[in-house]
Amino acid sequence: MHLHEDYPWAKAPIIISAPMRLIAYAPLAVAVSRAGGIGFIGAGTDAHQLEGYLQVASQLLKEKPIEGSLPSTLPIGVGFINWGADHGTSIRAIQKFKPAAVWLFAPYENDDLVEWMQETRKATNDVTKVWIQVGSVQDALEVARLCRPDVIVVQGSDAGGHGLERGAGIINLFPETADALREAGFGDISLVAAGGIIEGRGVAAALALGAEGVVMGTRFLASVEAHIAKGYQDAVLRSKDGGVSTVRSKVYDTLRGTIGWPSRIGGRGIINQSYLDAKDGHVTEENKKAYVEALKQGDLGWAENGRLTAYAGTGVGLVNKVQPAQEILEETRSKVEEINSRNLDRQSKL
């Protein structure tokens, strides 16, 4: 198991916090790693403040080091949205702080990741491991051939935030991807599962599929350490039946002015008035003006009839309270242990 070798502080099962743009900063990343997971800072499309975020993380870790972490790297990761992140600025920050992992996602073409991979490894003498997120079997095979990353993040269609507009759920996508990679000679690449995994039952299912680790994003929206507006967080706690109450669409990016995403990628968020007012996905000027006015309302912009974007996955209905990251990880691991124990007991009675 490569993850346990590369991240020796991590406890089984390995739980990873997604590098959520504008939400996952140093406090969340460090808290997750300190609790035995692998925490990621979301650099997103703008890496110009990344050195500052990593400096904060470095200071937090100096004040209270993580037992078992390696002296050669900072025991957290950094995630980039590659169509927008400045390559030179990003590599300089990586070279200076040497995070334990770099997570690459959403290039215009998979070939664009080759330089990122090569420069990351060169800048850190291979101590920073390269993770690449995919949402299809085809992409997994392509990035394996082009980059041979240390880790492939297999993201199912239930994921919140951005992912392929067309894709499979993790239950089918993960085993098919694993089989295809093994048959193509890439069975040594570590695979982690992402997309719609909220708590211990989902983690146990992903581990049963063969995942070395499991990514959770939506669950950490309701963490104490998340950099998130209370209105957004309340919308997450209020939402139920996520398969019906969320949708993957380009409407939210259009309203937020986040242009540049590859055409095959959309963002899954909680359905709100802005989405309902968009006709066949078309955002009118009137809708844009209403969104701008909603921004002035602060937390009320996410009220029940609100307009502001709240990205979240289909598992949002399982998120029902705000907790410190450590408690989230402890409860999740405890549930996995309970499930494993119950399964062993059932097998012993067969």
Keyphrases for this structure?
alpha/beta; eight-stranded parallel beta sheet; 11 strands
Could you explain how this protein is built, in words?
By secondary structure, the chain is α/β, with parallel strands linked by helices. 43% of the residues lie in helices and 17% in strands. It has 15 helices and eleven strands. The chain has helices at residues 2-6, 26-34, 50-63, 87-97, 112-123, 137-147, 170-183, 200-209, 218-221, 230-238, 242-245, 251-256, 273-277, 285-295, 325-348, and strands at 14-17, 40-44, 74-81, 99-105, 129-134, 151-155, 161-164, 190-194, 213-216, 246-249, 265-270. Helix 5 links the parallel strand 4 (99-105) and strand 5 (129-134). Helix 3 (50-63) runs parallel beside helix 4 (87-97). The two termini are 30 Å apart. The mean pLDDT is 96.
Describe the structure in brief.
The protein is of the alpha/beta class.
The chain-level mean pLDDT equals 96
The counted number of beta strands is: 11
Rounded to an integer in angstroms, the radius of gyration calculated over CA atoms is: 19 Å
Distance between the termini: 30 Å
Order of helices and strands: HEHEHEHEHEHEEHEHEHHHEHEHHH
- Please count the helical segments: 15
**Neighbour order of strands in the largest sheet:** 1-9-8-6-5-4-3-2
- Could you say which structural class the secondary elements and strand pairing correspond to? alpha/beta
Describe the global form.
Answer: globular
